[in-house]
Prior knowledge:
The complex is a heterodimer. Helix content of chain A is 25%, strand content 26%. By secondary structure, chain A is α+β, with helices and mostly antiparallel strands. In chain A, the strands form three sheets. Chain A has an eight-stranded mixed β-sheet, sandwiched between helices. A six-stranded antiparallel β-sheet of chain A has the order 5-4-9-6-7-8, with no helix packed on it. In chain A, strands 10-11-17 form a three-stranded antiparallel β-sheet. The radius of gyration of chain A is 20 Å and the shape is globular. Chain B is of the alpha+beta class. Chain B folds into two domains: 13-80 and 179-355, Aminopeptidase; 82-165, Elongation Factor Tu (Ef-tu), domain 3 (Beta Barrel). In chain B, 24% of the residues lie in helices and 25% in strands. Chain B has helices at residues 13-24, 33-42, 181-195, 216-225, 273-286, 302-305, 333-348, 353-356, and strands at residues 50-52, 58-62, 70-77, 82-88, 93-99, 110-114, 119-124, 146-148, 162-165, 170-172, 175-178, 201-208, 229-237, 261-263, 291-293, 314-321, 329-332. Chains A and B meet through strand 4, strand 5 and helix 5 of A and loops of B.
Amino acid sequence: MAENFDLLKTLEMLVETPGPSGSERIIRNKIEDEIRDYVDDMYTDALGNLIARKGIKAEGGKRLMISAHTDEIGLMVTHIDENGFARFTAIGGVSPLTCLGNRVLFMNGTQGVIGIERLDANEQPSLPKLFIDTGATSKEDSKVTVGDVAGFERPFLNLGKRLVAKSMDDRAAVAVAIGAIKKMQAGPNEVYFVFSVQEEVGLRGSMTAAYGVDPEVGIAVDVTRTGDTPRSAKMEVALGNGPAIKVRDSSFLADPRVINWMVEEAKAQGMPYQMEVLEAGGTDGASIQKTRAGVPAGCLSIPCRYIHSPSEMIDRDDLEQCVDLLAGLVSKKIEL
Amino acid sequence: MENTNKFSPEFGEKELDLLSRLSNALSVSGDEQEVREIVYAELEEFKDSMHTDAMGNVLVSRQGSGPNRVRVMIAGHMDEVGMMLTEEDGDGLFKFTIVGGVDPRQLVGKPVIVGRNHVPAVIGAKAIHLTTREERTQALKANQLRVDLGLGGSKLVEIGDRLTFDTKLAVLGPSLRGKALDDRLGVFNLIQLLKHAPENIDLLAAFTVQEELGLRGAKTSAYYFNPEVGIAMDSTPANDMPDFDGEDNPRYNTKLDGGPAIYLLDGATIGDHRLIKWLSETGDSEGIPYQYRQAGPGGTDAGSIHKTRAGVPSVSVSVPQRYLHSAAGLVRIDDVINTLKLMHAALSRLDRSILNSQER
């Protein structure tokens, strides 16, 4: 690991930076500052994906794409009423239940809280019933306007072995990619680390990034849900059991050769790992796989509880092992 | 930046005639031939730089003459929502399926035209005299309805023929009422833009197919053009009536008379910040009214364009319209003209430098 690299400090910085889909400039600039001294080249593409290259393809090497998405779910203002209350719509999969009582931070720095209209008996909260109160006393007094974007606001929480934040999805993966950039060894591969945009609204950024990079193998890094909480939906993934190697989700079937490559590397490093079969959900792996004439693709998942809530929880050991696994994968010659 | 070729669009008899022909045409997704023929006839002067691609999109490249021209793709879709005959059910009677987003509740009692020969027909239902109180509380589904062409009608049509509402464009004071204004207004304005294209850009015009079924034609059009900027010109709902309970209506989407609606975010695209700013600054400095479409579901051809190849900064601009996807929508002529004005003024000042900014 590069000297002075503190994974948790980097993670804390990443998760506390707002960046809903389509508004990734600030988080992108922070990632640029983090990796500038460790990559050979980097650029931002037409949609805002940050694409950083490390290494140049040598004899027996491959062109790899690693994708971790920079965006998080958020809100966009649709209407300000006469009294300054802001109506909003969701950016990505926002549950009305997790909105209640929550605090939001706009990209222009304005803060606010989410309130709700009176509900009928047995009525479930829905987004049209919710509004943001920024403390404005009138429409004229409002510091936000139609089109302004907000993320949820919640500080990083270090519980020791477990770590909690609003946007572990997918800043934990961004931290893993940054860690791998700093830790990887020079090898035969040309590795493109893509910090993608607009994943939460339909895997959009990775689609164009993959077209531009034209990789021979692709890996998405993302979070996956677990089945280890009281009466949760059944799932074989648990916090603390090591990196999860995706077999399938509802967006794609991971390439069996890529799965095998990841399993062998975990075994070689003597680290625990778990196989992930996710019933619903998608990752950048799906868009990479379908690029151009097709790309063998897989996904390295960080187990995560309470996904898309303001308190997403991961395990510190899982996180560190994901860095080691990814760094090992990209450093060596790959035979699929 | 200098606006080198001022253009003051009008809406006179010539324009009304073109828009009437476009609106009255039958061009349900997958069979856009009738609108394609109008586009070809109108754009005779571009015949050497125009072709129809494998899916049926009409693609026109209009080269400018200035230096460092930006390659701008603009899409207006030729298709409309409608229906298709699926099965004969007695002479002149046909079952049908819905093509695109049509609310089946509005089908009953509508005069329709079927196939390329516009055979007149009607979608009927049991007369009110014979219905029970309970039947009148249930909306009929498309599979409970039939298209009735009258005796002998079966000889005039084929299974697979498209049908649409028999609505002719009408002028209602400052407004227009017609069917398929989604997106014949986009086609209409794109034809005008081609005829008055600013010299500082290469205008890559795509008259697209199958937008209503999932932005399909725009996908191959954008791959072909490989543009630097993508714009969809479309029409979007104006739900600008007060709520029935007298409360403030916060979900109007857009409002008539508000000018062109610039998209921030819809179900298919997050508008490029730089292009949104470029359009709004153009409106501000040229005194052209505009509004932001409320963020929410829906999609335009920009949803396909921006994901093409290595990515294309994209945005959408729509004419606000009441009663979209019904037998008769209603728009303001001023909104149509201001949409064209804003687009022309913005394109005239488009400079590649806006794409280099850090605002992405």
